[in-house]
Amino acid sequence: MSRRVAELLHSRIVDVESKVFPDGESYVRLTAPVRGEEVAVIQTLSRPQDTSTIQLLQLVSAAKEHGAIKAIAVVPYFAYARQDKRFLEGEVVTAGLLVRLIKEAGADAFMTVDAHSVNSTKGFTIPVMNVDASPVVSEKLLEMKLNGASVVAPDEGALDRARSLAKFLAGEAFSMRKSRDRTTGRIVMADADFDVSGKNVVIYDDVISTGGTVTEGIKILRRHNPSRIVVACVHALMVGNALDRILAAGSEEIIATDTLPTTVKTVSVAPLIAEELSRSA
Ligand code: R5P
Domain 2-132+269-280, CATH 3.40.50.2020 — does that match? Predict the structure, then answer.
């Protein structure tokens, strides 16, 4: 990802030496000077998320300590973004904690791709860029002849994202109604109150983790006899047997982006990140 973004921007790439010591602590080192330069630190928060997070903080700090005039933290997948509020008493709003830490490390701006919600990046006192992946996701879906497809968000919080994708596909956007038991994690989804009979459907979410959400969505939508069902998401964590579950439930394929390493087919968000970086320069 970093290399592709650098190539698109005709920028120099600074290689990073990184390792995790036998005791689990992280180490990073910039292998070239950055004094007087504007630096984009591209570090996704993929698994192991906690190690990736500390390395992001180290890299932003390293850039500023070594004289960069500006450090933009580019975090394609912003882990912990779903803990964007206190759902149960005693919890910590981890997204907000990361916001404070990234700023404190020295970031002058923050960029991510499809942050879970507006609350996820709330509290930043530096410019925030939230890149919408739907232009590149839609390209792939259009290749799959899904123009005019109905785009279904698995919950109301994902409806704006579905609307954005639907615009590119020239289709309509709908949302399912989902609730989650905050203690057991079990989700309950209400029956669809929109019509997908005989239509092509794309279920579009920001994150697929265990696959439970989209699998439940597929099961419900299938009762309404759609023509085709394809699942798309931005950040495909694909924990355990998520991929098999989703395919077995009836999705033709799963399309995701390259915001993190994954086991499913991806489209690259590098051009969108490069474009946003060149706009912010
Ligand atoms: C939650 O609101 C997110 O947008 C995703 O729907 C959720 O994290 C997906 O998780 P899973 O794949 O485990 O159901």
Answer: yes
* Residue in 178, 199, 219, 265 annotated catalytic: 178
**What pLDDT is stored for residue 281 in this prediction?**
75
pLDDT value at residue 185: 81
Q: How far is CA 281 from the centre of its chain?
A: 23
Question: Is there a contact between 178 and 154 (Cβ–Cβ < 8 Å)?
Answer: yes
Contact criterion met (CB below 8 Å) for 210 and 242 = yes
The answer to whether 178 is a known catalytic residue is yes
* Ligand 1, CB within 6 Å, residue ranges: 82, 154-155, 157-158, 205-213
Interhelix angle 270-280/2-9, nearest 10 degrees? 50
CATH number (3.40.50.2000, 3.40.50.300, 3.30.499.10, 3.40.50.2020) of 134-258 reads: 3.40.50.2020
> 66 pLDDT band (50/70/90 cuts)?
very high
Mean pLDDT computed over 134-156: 98
pLDDT on residue 180: 83
